[in-house]
Design a protein that fits this description.
alpha/beta; Rossmann fold; 2 domains; six-stranded parallel β-sheet; three-stranded parallel β-sheet; 10 helices; 11 strands; 16% strand; binds NADPH dihydro-nicotinamide-adenine-dinucleotide phosphate
Amino acid sequence: MAERIDGKIIAAQVLEKVKAETAKLVGETGLQPGIAVVIVGEDSASQFYVRSKGKRAEECGFKSVTHRLPAETSEADLLKLIGELNDDDTIHGILVQLPVPDHIDDGKVIQAISPDKDVDGFSFVNVGRLTTGQLGSAFVPCTPAGSMVMIRQALGTDDLSGLSAVVVGRSNIVGKPMANLLLAANATVTIAHSRTKDLPAVCREADILVAAVGRPEMIKGDWVKPGACVIDVGINRVDAPDTEKGYRVVGDVDYEAAEKVAGSITPVPGGVGLMTVAMLMASTLISACRAAGKEAPTF
Ligand code: NDP
């Protein structure tokens, strides 16, 4: 039976380290990390995420500011606010909660954030830093960064030399940065997607299998190489009329079947999903350390 990679425990460890390192930074320099979260409109899932980010930031000892803008906010006004936050020395991480309303170009908004405060790691500069292997100066998208922490813990090593990794999914926010992080850690990486031929056979080659597809339980137990480390990024709602909510949340991997074959595996819920906000806090602290001219901790 596979070892369960517990997102609750690993995310709590990351947050403890962020808290301790924040106290140290404040003690040594007086500089308090600051995060600004911007949300446009009333989308209830987004409001939930924004509240949880603000709460975690305060727990870490950060200054936390939330800008709640009405849905009819113009693109120009949003860009003006981002410009002000870019110039604000008390803010080290800027996060615009996506999606933004249709009349706003999200690409323009993301690229307007200063690369040095882009803790989501979506700006072209940070994508370029990651792909050229400059991890010391890059901000990396939080979900793949959190997945990497889990992989390193599960395998007990930072160096993935000699291991083959398969990432299923090629999105800009998960699949591609995940593949680049694995490559930077010396894994031999394959990126699979909807046009890949014989996906089960490709997956079976993986010592490390990362699923970032968005299709409930698509990856079956017999797609998993015995002993593999399986990271399930998927978050999918499926009907469950017999439950109170009427749905349950499952990953992209058939957990019950895969845990019989894998060496280690993340559950859904309770896995990668819990790492994202923790890594956002880690990135904001790293940004503040850089602003203070101090060596940043690694996570
Ligand atoms: P996208 O929809 O942007 O990308 C999905 C990828 O999966 C695409 O590259 C697509 O291929 C590929 N794909 C789709 N169908 C198949 C198939 N049948 N076989 C092989 N590949 C396929 O999703 P995201 O990357 O944004 O998210 C993926 C999952 O991760 C979702 O469930 C999402 O909810 C979850 N997620 C979780 C986060 C968290 O834990 N905090 C954060 C972000 C996402 P192609 O490019 O060819 O279309």
